[in-house]
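Standup notes
- DV: blocked on the single-chain target, sequence here:
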Amino acid sequence: MFTGTQFGRYEIRSKLGEGGMGEVYAALDPVLERSVAIKLLPTEFTLDDDRRSRFRQEARVVSALNHPNIITIYEIGENEHGSFLATEFVEGTTLRELIKRETLSLPRVLKIVEQTANALVAAHHAGIVHRDIKPENIMVRDDSIVKVLDFGLAKPKVPIGDEENNENNRTIPGTVMGSARYMSPEQARGLEVDERTDIWSLGVVLYEMLMGNAPFDGETTADTIAAVVYKEPEPLVDHLPNIPSELSRIVRKALQKDREERYQDVKDLALDIKDLLHELEHANSGNRSGHTSSSPNFSENPTMIHRTVSGNHPTEQHVAVVSEGVRPHDRRKVSRIRTAVAVSLGMLLASAIGFGFYAWFDSPARLSDTAFVKPQISRINTDGRVMLPAISPDGKYVAYVSGEIGSRSLVVRQIATDSTITVVPTTPLNLQSIGFSPSGDHIYYTQTNNDFTISTLYQVPTLGGPSKRMIEDVDSAVAFAPDGKQFAFVRHIPKTNDDLIVVVNTSTLEQQEFISTEATEYDFFVPKLAWSPDGLRILTGAGLRQSGFVTRTDIVEIAVGSKEVKAINSREFFTAGNFAWLADGSGYVFTGRMTQNDAVQVWLASYPVGQLHQVTNDLNDYVDLGIAGDGRSIVTIKGDATGSIWRYSTADKTAAQITSDSRNVEGKGGLFQRTDGALIFTRNDGKEADLWLADADGKNGRALFQEAGFALDPVASRDGRFVVFNLQKDKRSRIWRMNTDGTGAVPLTEDDPDIIDLSPQITPDGKTVIFQRRIANEDRFKLMKVAIDGGKPEVFYENEARGVFHPRISPDGKRIAFASYDMATFGKTLHIATIDGANFGKVERDVEYNLINGFVWAPDSRELTILTNRGGSQNLWRQPIDGSAAAPITDFKSGRIFNYQWSSNGKDILIARGSVNNDLILIRDGLIGDGTSDVTKRQTGSRRRANS
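- DV (later): unblocked, structure below
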């Protein structure tokens, strides 16, 4: 077909290529104004009714996966040209082209394999076996996102010698090489295949990326198949002597000819790759810690390798630095060491020797001098859906909350055996905190009531049993005194907006008010306390706020006797929390960040000097923390969120991803569609949130408003003149207005550090902006209004007994919906009012909803679109304002919904959605093995030698 040819509703733009599975063309879908790829299937495929039917069924299943690493299928159809697929158009290169063009760093290799494995996890879970994993079917986008192609298309039943003809494959006269290189032994023998055939093929791809050539090759297809069935691959270590042993093990296990000895589930392979990548990132950050330069992302670093160079001289070891994009000169020989594999052993050896001499001769007595100098970090959960970690005093068990919002349980896992037991069954209520008793026999946890307003403390046996209700109104985890006879917690007092530390008798549960922030210079206590091993002090964080913004967090000790509060941190932290003492009281660990733009890391501080040691050092956030009784094991959560913008069609009930997945999570802070179809959305890089503009299909994204700070909640006037948004910068939160092209940005509300303005809305006539406001020292929000052309803000609605927030104006301009909370009970209610604030009506909530992105009006102004967490999955529901029963709109099985808004056509919903991956991380002190410090062993040995 030629450029410009009409192919159904599509317009052909160019031919992309062809192979055994047909011809592929770039095309334009003029209806949705997006680029697509058209795969025209071969005639022999079309004539096989059974194969065509099976393909259509599998394609339908794949199209429903909506996985970020699987190419999206838009349409399966037939016309006068034959059977075809219309898929998303991926801007990038195949892995085959990438291998030819560039030298890949080891982290990049592992990330490609991890993403490919994640795609296969989703497919296998849906009952689909790919059968043709190879570099040609793996696309790497320009932003490094991997897309796996041709799910369910390739079959092993092809005549030998008549496989896919591809210019990337080495051609021998009289034969054509293709997929045979990547066939599993059972596939090559014509046996029935299952998911494990894909694991083999991915192992071959990994081997090829490392070595520069496939492990099984021959002059003919028959020779290659014979090698696959009978020949063992050359060991990686023979050519890459410094390859990590764990990576060699992973490759060997993936390439076991007996599939019973292979990985049985591709998820296990993905997790092993993820663990190895994490270890390499941590090792790399440690190697850079002494450098004065900034620490870039590990994935962008050149990595040192040792390689054996053959020539006329005796073999010798050379160290070479291989950067991405630099091709070796001799591809046939030297390029077998294709990838930068090992971390610089010289640097590791030097650091190890240096520490060894220090440990041998210095004989430190304090645990804080040696703890976590060489941390060993590993992941101990399996699904990335965990929070609130705790570790038993003996270090043998970890407890955590598992599941998604609205469907979580409390789980205990034995570290040595990985066996688990659910001690608190799945509940829609929020589990707020957990911790072990000093004996390790019980777990104390807090759980909200049905209205999510007050948390109650419960006690449950560690290995299961009935939960016992203890104390109501507990707003933190409990911290036990060293003798276990008392524990302390934080309670927030809404009426005065103070935090109170309460001490409780463990036996009688008698409560005693210990100290309130009212008696200190601080505005709040961090809700995680730590009682010192000597029982004389309680450690916590105490912070200052200005207009609701945290300006500083100090690490403070509170004397148990005198109640004196004293800051002990040697450096200033923006946030600090999750404190836990070392066993001997010589220091403590905590999570914190020094500036708002830093990632939250795990730190160790000596006591009382406050000398700091950074235990973790990477780009992830570590949230919450627990420590074993010996002070040698830490459990924490490593968090990572990714997401993108999707368009959900209410007509055909399908969702299509329209922007790329990224950690910027586009649209999380707000999104909408202009009347001309263009998208405006937030884009958060962790340091600031900007407003971006993109075409209706999500393409051609570019910055619209960039200024230091966080731009949130953008909305547009119907006349197309203005965009109004909330800008948080310089410890102010104000309402701003700009032209729709991003020019003319001006504030609409006062420059007052004591005022917080949020959540703007524009009335349908485009003349007024309604927003919520809180003034310092006031305990509630009220609704305000200001002219869109500027002027003095005025009160729109306030209630002495209730705080009101989250205003949403109906499309017809007749009503406003907003939420409120009772100042005494914190009970929350959803209100519908006329636009002038009179004649209230009320919708009783019969489904749970998220108060941040909790509701928007539907286009007909007769119902609200709300976010629910039913069944452990987040979905959008319709809630009629007359109070009748709610009904589902979307049916997502997984993932989080961060934000959403109806599109300008009133038929589609724009949804910012993605995933939050929380890994349970165990950090062990690298100096311990059998429970005795290696330092102690060396000191003991040296003394014995001295006495002999």
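- Follow-up: Residues 1-89 form a domain with the Phosphorylase Kinase; domain 1 fold (CATH 3.30.200.20).
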